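Usage

Read records sequentially. Each one opens with the input sequence:
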Amino acid sequence: MKALIVDDKDENTYLLDMILRSAGFETLSARNGVEALERLAQQQVDLIISDVLMPRMDGFQFCRQVHQNPQWQRIPFVFYTGSYTEKEDMELARQLGATRYLVKPLDPDVLSATFRELVDPMAQPPPAAIPQVPDENTYLKSYNERLVHKLEEKVEELEKLSHRLQGTLDDKVKEIAERQSVEESLRLSEERYRSVISALAEGIILIDVKTMSVVACNDSAAQILATPRTRILDHSAELPIWHPSRPDGSALPEDEQPLLRCIRTGLPQNCDVLGLHRPDGTISWIAAHVRPCMADPQGRPECVVMSFTDITAQRATEDRVRDQANIIDLSHEAIVIWSFDGIVRYWNRGAERLYGWSAYEAIGKPGSQLFTRELALKETLEKASKAEDTWESEQHYVTKQGTPITVNARFTPVRDPQGAPQAILAFYFDITERKQLEEQFLRAQRLESLGILAGGVAHDLNNILSPILLALPIIRLRVTDAQSLHLLDTMEASANRGAQIVRQILTFSRGLRAEKAPVQTRHLLKEIAEISQETFPRAITIETDFPRSLWMVEADTTQLHQVLLNLCVNARDAMPDGGTLVLKADNVELDAPALPKTPDARPGRYVKWSIIDSGSGIPPELLAKLFTPFFSTKAPDKGTGLGLCTALSIVRQHSGFMQVESTVGKGTRFDVFLPALDSTEVDTPVLPPTLPRGNDELILVVDDEFAMRHICQDLLVAHNYRVITAESGQQALSLFRNQANEIALVVTDFLMPSMSGAELIRMIRSLRADIKVIAISGLTSEESVNRPPTGVIADAFLPKPFSAEQLLVFVHDVLADHTQA
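and closes with the structure output:
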């Protein structure tokens, strides 16, 4: 334990040093408050014991300085004095933050026990809030009142001595002796008085009211006013040479000057900010306090004491700090100063804007009360304190409003003149939007990669599904029992469903046009309800309500299936603890007055779907962002932010529109409006009674998939065509050269290794310009087959997977055109 002794008397310092060392303390000493502040800046102490009356800076000023410094505020501060012993002195000490006020003399054992108790954490009650140090004006008022009171005590002491001298004298020797004693006492008292006055940092001027002259002033007054003492003593109390000014620099009228008002009224006067012009033209700014003293028998003051403190540097510092604070507050970045224990010491307007807490709310608070990631903050400050220059880090916080943000933080240690770190200066740059854009860019890249992968998968699936669809009609010719035919129907329906899904993948990845047809959406709703019933948690109840007379819509079934699935999955995710999901459908007719306030809404007949959940609901501020691409309230690994955006895009492609209503805590309702067809029935296409047959034409089938070549050959041969096959473009070109005049039609895959379908078509047409070609592919659209600058290179395009009927009809039609031509 280490204690600091502050006393200008060596004997007092020696006694305290002995007592403290016997109590187990190491000691430092200082002769006044100025030296003591220097000691504190160099070494950490656990206890401060200070006298009150000292030169240069007394104990009251020293105590105020200590408790204005956050590093020293919690050090126990003990006054041990024999001069300032009144209750008012003790009250001023308490206001300044003193822990104890002890009056000399005290028993050494009592002192030793008191000092040990003050530094013993087990003997202390829980730490109270640090007392609020009085503001400058309140402090100066109390301080000067105590100073003037001491002066009055001295004057009163002189008066008492003077009255005693006026008593009767028994004999001349005794009278002379007593007079000499009194004179010596007066001399000593005056010396003490002058020592006290000279030691004060405050300026003191004593005015004789009768002569209106300055009868005394101390060196501090001469220094503050930049005027020699002799010149001050040569002037009257009006002090015209100083031209008193208001804080704004304007002249102070005589009736407002505190010194003259006190002389005229006999009442104490205070002036917190008063400007006095120095001889060199500059202004000394002072805080002045004027008190009457030494009253005559009628109670009128004979003298007036003006005490004043130089606040010129303080005003300049305040102005400079205010200007710097204004400059810092103009910064858009958040600027925070942290103590090493995580307490906010400074918080600019940028920090207010970024985090939501005002400077009043944040300053003095630990980071753990503002941010939940207390451990991360402690680790950050520890790393920053060890950095030689600047340490940067990307960090995540939650604002006062609960909004998560990402910041780029730059930390710089603030060091004292000796290079020791004192605090951490932190700059925070909001990069939330940039990080979101980066995430969206990465998502877009992932989706692009997914699209490429989906295209490749779709191509392979089409090559797998095509032989199945082509083989089913051939098998039907060989199967007659009802059960087997039913199985074939199931296989065909499943293969067609798979083909639709593949087509949807291609639509998503390559932007292919949807294939629309009249659809009864009641079946779709029923199918989605069954899927939800089977796959959603049992805590979610599925309810349906749609009439049998639901109108028809023209739509792509797979895309509408996707819309319903996206909305139902979102509803499921909004009810993690269970709830109710309702699927409804209605026929509605909307006229202009009844149209919802949606830009896409138009008057007309609509089939209206309603997907209603009893989940958590959507906050109003998020509804406007709901259909924004990549916007999601789910965790990053739970959603892409494209579900609702895709659903809205599909509905708009079908000339419909969507509405959403939500109440937080009650649930959400999505309404989908799809234009209804005039007819409620689907016209069943009339298939030809028999499939087209050939006239023994020779057809060249080119495909790198063996199954496709084999099944196409069997199908065409079964319908009176002759077929030769090739597994590559080079083999097909060789066959065509040998039989160019006999081959009537070439059916070729468009995507093949080594030589593509496009290259093959150009090569064979260079050999025979009028040859007919059907291009087939599981990936490429008709537009890409016949896009410029290649021109129309195929007579027809048949996308995989295709049925036997489609292939036979295409072959028949292309050959028929050739025959007619």
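Summary fields computed downstream for this record:
- The first strand starts at residue 2 and ends at 6.
- The chain has six domains: 2-134, 145-316, 329-430, 436-502, 521-675, 698-820.
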